[in-house]
Write a structure and sequence with these properties.
Elements: E1 17-20, E2 26-33, E3 39-44, E4 50-57, H1 71-78, H2 88-97, E5 101-106, E6 111-118, H3 122-134, H4 140-159, H5 161-173, H6 187-191, H7 195-205, E7 211-217, H8 221-230, E8 253-256, E9 262-269, H9 280-292, H10 297-305, E10 311-318, E11 323-331, H11 336-352, H12 357-375, H13 378-391, H14 398-405, H15 409-419, E12 426-432
Parallel strand pairs: 3-7, 8-12
Antiparallel strand pairs: 1-2, 2-3, 4-6, 4-7, 5-6, 9-11, 9-12, 10-11
Amino acid sequence: MAASWGVPASIAGQELRRIRLIGGVERTMERVVLDNGLTAITELRPHTQTVSIHVGVKAGPPQEEDRYLGISHFLEHMLFKGTTKSTAEELSAVVEGNGGVLNGFTEHEFTEFFVTMLSKNWESGFDVLAEMITQPALDPECIDRERSVVLEEIQQAKDDAETCVWDRFHMRVWKDYAVSKPVLGKTETVENISRAALEEHYHRFYVPENMCLVVVGNVNEEPLWERIKSLNLNGKLTPFVNRRPYADMPEALDYRRDCHQANIVMGVDITPLSIHHSDRFPMALYNVILGGNASSRLFLEIREKRGLAYSIASDVGLLDRNGFFAVSAAMHPSKMEQVTTIINEEIARSLTTSPDAADVERAKNFILGILANNLESNHSSGRRSLICGLFGEDPSVQHFITQLENVTPEEIRACAERYVDPAKLVTAAIVPANDSGD
């Protein structure tokens, strides 16, 4: 069946299916592992006008030596700075001149590169991304110049109170794990990264069995698979994982003279709950009910009824091996104690009383609505499939929908009681310096 859609017979087979989505819309998705180990996921959407192409690499802080903390992010920058064939300006001109956007990110566990193009010009975008990934120049002069840019990015993150408080929270809540380390690195470690170190990191992790390629959109399948097969990716993965947690544990409170609001994050490590765990479904619903939208308990109580804060929300962060649940808020320092008291009270109440069936139904519809909205975007759908492909999850959505819809109110309460231990809440806060007694 797969070959009838234009997939080369040598890799046909496997997992071609029509997947029925919300509202009856269908899409054709295929996931194939090539002979060299590369995972490739394609999703044909002939009704759209764009193509979104994503490449992911399992490279982040857990794959970094402590002396080179931030090297995955630095290398991500360098892959945009020219190849052995083209300058950075030439690569950008090709993409943007053909109606595209080119960008990349480094996260706690992986690095991503993507290009979104007008569908009629998808080949140009694919070729640029392939050239960047397989033929980076790593020019010494450019490395030194880009190092300054990365150091500025680190400083910018330090200057932003919201970014800084979340970084501080990650370091504290995941204090026993390598994912606690700052993705950008530290000034002294970035200054220590040499061209040789970048080359070694590239050759160690940018190998097909450690990567995933996703293409979503209006594209002719036969030439797409020909391009995928022709990617010049080789090498074998050399296992390396630095499990050591971050050594520089920050204090809970940071007093700063350059901010006027108190920014606080309160949360708990919910490992082993991860992107693979079945408890992620009731936990997602618990998050929405407690603080995940404008009709949640925390939003209504803290912002709508009492006017104590502009920003109040809860969040669940799930990785390949780890997870956290957290509540964040920004308010005047004089209101911080009152806000944290309400947060603690609402968490305590949620652990002893199951939510109403109507609240659960609204939360399910809220999550399904966000999912449906994201699936209408080639880029968002591609990013979701990329994470699934990198970490071995099924990229189809039917399993997710079925599991979510089957969750009961009591399962939500029991899940929260299992993971959200008030005695283990970790706090990170940034407050104005004049509230420290200075």
